[in-house]
Amino acid sequence: MKTQHPIKQQARHWLVLLHSGQASEQQWQEFKAWLQQDSRHQQHYREAELLWRQTTYTETVADALSVRLQARKPRYARYAWLAACMALLAVLLVPVWQVESDILQLHTEKGQIQTFRLDDGSSLTLGGDSLAQVNLSDTDRQVWLQKGDAEFDVSPDETRPFIVTVKNSHIRVLGTLFDVQQRAEQITVGVAHGRVEVSQNHQVQLLTNNQAVMLDKQGMSPVQFLPDSQFANWRQQRFNFQDSTLEDVISVLNRYSNVTLKLSHPTLASQRLTAAFRLDQLEQMLDALQLSHNIHWHKDAQGVIWLSI
């Protein structure tokens, strides 16, 4: 018998518990922490939710569960809960390929920028070495940006909101042009035109034309003005880093550049810098880095660029 994927089992456990109406405040906090541990947790929980919505039987069971728990005495409630859980699990344990078959995997290679056309008329452009999962259903349009950068040109559809999930942040839109830049420490959401709702934890911000916000572990930044020239500048292989770690800069460049950059010593990783340049100006940027931060560079016989102090 094939062993069930542990994350999928955990996702189904949380789905049953939270839809039971019996989850405590502590369990809600544990669920929130579980979601934030790994982007795969969010992915598998949303897949379980999708299966829940697509199966009318689960709605019947959920309603029956609520009635039984309210009607029975406490000493019998656990038996009603157990019976309902068994019924729910019987539905939720349907082979996951039924959900996964509807999820479109989109990815690009290192240095590749590619536009994908979606069935709803929207388009999604991925930056170098990026990964996204897309699910278009009758009720909504879901995208999980697992890695890298993406620009979205969303076709308006008032009946089906377009929702992008990046780590623990959510972007909701009906029709607009916006982009998401994902870095190790920060996520940037920028809007060219239209209206986008960005949420993280309990913070919600509405963005419109030429506006952007940054999200990190501390929360969401104030809304900033976004010039047209800076919108999705990675598409023109132009990059703008503000007080970023050298490790983050190298990680981004390694997704777009044909050469590989490496750090010769781990202490360099936390070095912070601000820089704006085009990818074809990489060596000029490295020369400037040597002057401003005393960080030296050289290229070895294999073409790898090494940074050292």
UniProtKB/TrEMBL annotation:
Stored InterPro entries: FecR, FecR_C, FecR_N, Ferrdict_sens_TM
Limits of the FecR protein domain: 106-197
UniProt keyword annotation of Transmembrane present: yes
Pfam family, one: DUF4880
Residues covered by the Protein FecR C-terminal domain: 238-302
Organism superkingdom: Bacteria
Location of the FecR N-terminal domain: 9-49
The keyword Membrane belongs to this UniProt entry's keyword annotation: yes
Swiss-Prot/TrEMBL keywords: Membrane, Transmembrane, Transmembrane helix
Segments crossing the lipid bilayer: 79-97
Protein name: FecR family protein
